[in-house]
Write a structure and sequence with these properties.
It contains six helices and eleven strands. The protein has 209 residues and is α/β, with parallel strands linked by helices. The strands form three sheets. Strands 8-7-9-6-10 form a five-stranded mixed β-sheet. The protein has a three-stranded mixed β-sheet with strand order 1-3-2. The longest helix has 23 residues.
Amino acid sequence: IAIQSKGRLNEESLALLNEIGIEVDSSKRKYLTKACNFPVELLNLRDDDIPSVVANGSATLGIVGLNEVEEKGCDVEIVDRLGFGACRLCLAIPKTEIYNGPEYFLGKRIATSYPNILRRFLDSKGVEAEVEVITGSVEIAPAAGIADAIFDIVSSGSTLVANSLKEVETVLESEAVLICRKDISVEDRQILEEIRFRMDSAKISRGKK
């Protein structure tokens, strides 16, 4: 199972595995960690590497944000939505600007770390815009003169407010998902079904506490 190596999604992924009885020693951060009571190993990776690693068969399963699956476009199966890591991919513009719909972006420069999702959205609206691909600190692009608008992950929205930006379009609602490779073996499919059963049981028990 490939999981994010650090950050909130790592912590919540490990918490979920612990909740369903898969014990992993996370005290020592390692690239590969074996569960002590279940036939799985955890691969600790960058989140944007997880879809391709699952697609090419290096990992059988992965826990990753839906946004990364949609951006990479890898040939994987989305097994289940996991109910944590909620966020959204939004277009945002300077708060003083007047927004009149997607046509606002005609001829504009938009900074993003998610160019594929953005281009699909713009194409669906018939909007031609210049996509500036940058990594990290996307929200400062308008103030720095790099772009007219941004397309980025939003959770609370406080970062946008701090940079004098406002949301104008939500393109994708994202959360953590469980993915698997398409050509999964019969043996691995049985392990996957056991994991799904435990996850479903955990969801039900949470609702009854």
